[in-house]
Amino acid sequence: MYQWVSLISLWAIPVMIAFVLLYGWKKRVPVYETFVEGAKGGFGTTIRILPHLIAMMVAVTMFRESGALGLLLGLIKPVLDFLHFPEELLPLALLRPLTGTGSLAIATDLIAQYGPDSLLGRLAATMQGSTDTTLYVLTVYFGAVGIRNSSYALKVGLLSDLAGVIFSLLVVYLVFG
Fold it and tell me: Global pTM?
């Protein structure tokens, strides 16, 4: 079974690209020209997103490097102990709504330190996959298209991140704990 999954995984993207090219050719779409036109639009989007992206990266780096994250961890530790929430996962839960790269680095460190089949490794992987970079998405994409009032999206996004953290803990504890 693993060999079939591996084979499908290996060929899925090339087959999809070939399908799109052949379909466009069959429909008489100028495929190359359409691709170049899309690339031009993508470049403009990148230029509009870049200032928002830089601002978010600076804010996240300042939060981590200033020691504010460590201070917050120290203050919340008694509550985490009461809830049986592993304190090693708190940086992941807090940084995931801010930065995908930073939270992936934390998850990777946890998996490297405790192992992928450990309870913490499974919790980190499940939490990483069950939450999103809400503040990053709001800052970059809403800023790029000029949406100024994102309060409802922020509330819903952060609540869904909280639900992702809670349910990843519950599911991993139920299945593996």
Answer: 0.65
